[in-house]
Design a protein that fits this description.
two-stranded antiparallel ribbon, 22 helices, 45% helix, signal, RagB/SusD family nutrient uptake outer membrane protein
């Protein structure tokens, strides 16, 4: 554990000095800086907090762990790689568990160091006008990450001062009760709400981003009154709206930080695929779209159960999924020494499950591929700029459609159904964009369905299943076909201990307290 989240936290001051390119996350090298000689103006402080948005610290979560936990576990994706998530046979040695745990606590380490540093600078006479918003920004990110941790592992460590922990020499930190981890996350978000500005440059969090995330946390706790209040504040602010180009939110760098985005991991296209770029492209891309510019090995594909979930006429199916007949005339991939393939693609890409694979056909296990976060075959072939695994699309973690559906569910408030005009208006705004007829009455299952298709392949549906409680979650999981076109697979092994992921095995070896029952954080 010392080398994972504690040690990462101690390294945070050095790591956040690395430089990124372009937009608001650009920052100068701060080598050799100290609290005394730096952080003397808003530019220097914001250069530091920009690290919290970058793909660098988020890398090991958003690359594969987000897919495995949020969508494979939930039955939205099929994979031959993360089969333990597909089959609920996850062990504490899982690579995805270790990767996401390490990423989350590294980000917390960054946030902790910034909060402490800026508070010390302020106490020494630094300008509150630029330090207070930076502290609030850091607390937003820390609250967001603890919200993910609480939903993923349930009980978990809470760390606020890794330096003090390191000096004490006692790394055997216990797990704290999930309700306390959620309370800690909420307190961070409440502080962020007070300290953040009403507006900022695109991509930076604001007071309304804090309100939006609080609404989601309250909903998870079934605190419907507060979820409704916070969602309503976001809606009434007029700061966000649904965008017409649904697919573009995930596939076009020009749409980064659009009017629907509330919080996104910030990416830039670069020649270093392990730098600040988005590397979801190859894991989702259809193999037929692999070119000299873009990798595509279709590690994750839509599940058959997910395909069945779409209503007839739902535009989100085409916006999210490639199936037989799906086309993009702008994409014209070509390959060296592949005349049949080149001829088939000459007039634009067509997803075809009858064509031979070597001649441009697609034959994934579910005869479908994912559109979201696939930027295309490369700029030379009519797509977005792509270099191997790397594209420049942001990864969206919270968007306005979520707030509308949270609002509708908060008004429903656990009732059997509602015809409340405000709830219907919120949900039907989302349905209208998808080309669907409005609902005149809604149930919890209606909202859960809407959330599943709206946020498919965005890493969120597992948490929607989980918050239904074990009995409902078990019923949902056991109804899902998790197989392929060659054979259906239904699970019968879903037990209550699978509602949360195990703590990484390596952490427990170094900190045996993590293997014990959780304890209260608040006395």
């Amino acid at each position: 554990m010392k080398r994972n989240f504690i040690y990462a936290a101690l390294l945070a001051p050095a790591l956040l000095l690395a430089s990124c390119k372009e937009s608001f996350i650009e920052r100068p090298s701060l080598s050799g800086t100290t609290t005394g000689n730096y952080y003397n103006n808003a530019e220097e402080v914001r250069a530091a907090t920009s690290t919290l948005y970058s793909g660098l610290p988020w890398r090991n979560y958003e690359s594969r762990a987000q897919d495995a936990i949020g969508d494979v576990l939930a039955g939205n994706m099929f994979t031959y790689t993360d089969t333990e998530y597909l089959n609920f046979t996850i062990s504490a040695a899982s690579e995805r568990i270790g990767a996401s745990w390490g990423a989350f606590y590294k980000i917390i380490g960054y946030a902790n160091v910034m909060i402490k540093t800026f508070e010390e600078k302020k106490a020494a006479g630094g300008g509150a006008a630029y330090l207070d918003p930076a502290i609030a920004e850091s607390r937003f990110i820390r609250g967001l990450v603890y919200f993910y941790i609480a939903r993923t592992w349930g009980a978990a460590p809470i760390i606020t001062d890794p330096g003090a922990t390191a000096l004490s020499g006692d790394f055997n930190i216990p797990r704290y009760l999930q309700k306390d981890v959620l309370r800690f996350a909420l307190e961070d978000l409440q502080a962020a709400e007070k300290g953040l500005p009403e507006s900022d440059v695109p991509g930076r969090v604001t007071k309304y981003a804090a309100k939006a995330l609080m609404a989601k946390l309250y909903l998870y706790q079934k605190d419907y009154a507060n979820a409704r209040t916070k969602a309503e504040e976001v809606i009434n602010s007029g700061k966000y709206t649904l965008v017409s180009d649904y697919t573009g939110m995930f596939t076009k760098a020009s749409m980064n930080n659009n009017a629907e985005s509330i919080f996104s991991i910030q990416h830039q296209f670069s020649q270093d695929p392990w730098g600040t770029g988005n590397i979801k492209n190859p894991d989702r891309g259809a193999g037929a779209l692999r070119t000299s510019e873009a990798d595509a090995w279709e590690m994750y594909v839509p599940s058959l159960d997910m395909l069945k979930e779409y209503e007839f006429g739902d535009l989100r199916r085409r916006w999210s999924v490639m199936e037989h007949g799906w086309t993009n005339p702008s994409w014209k991939p070509q390959r060296a020494n592949a005349p049949k393939y080149n001829e088939f693609m000459a007039n634009g890409f067509r997803y075809d499950t009858l064509q031979p694979v070597e001649a441009g056909g697609s034959l994934s296990p579910t005869r479908s591929n994912i559109v979201k976060y696939f930027a295309g075959p490369g700029k030379s072939f009519g797509g977005e700029p792509v270099l191997g695994q790397n594209s420049g699309n942001n990864v969206v973690l919270l968007r306005y459609a979520d707030i509308l559906l949270i609002y509708a569910e908060a008004i429903l408030a656990g009732q059997a159904s509602t015809s409340d005009a405000k709830a219907l208006d919120a949900l039907n705004q989302v349905r209208k964009r998808a080309g669907l007829n409005p609902k005149t009455s809604i149930t919890n299952d209606d909202i859960l369905h809407e959330r599943r298709v709206e946020f498919a392949f965005e890493g969120d549906y597992w948490y929607d299943i989980q918050r239904q409680g074990f009995a409902k979650a078990k019923a949902i999981i056991e109804k899902q076909n998790r197989g392929t076109v060659t054979g259906a697979v239904y699970l019968t092994n879903f037990t209550e201990d699978k509602m949360y992921l195990p703590i990484p095995a390596g952490e427990i070896v170094q900190a045996p307290a993590l293997g014990k029952d959780p304890v209260p954080y608040y006395k």
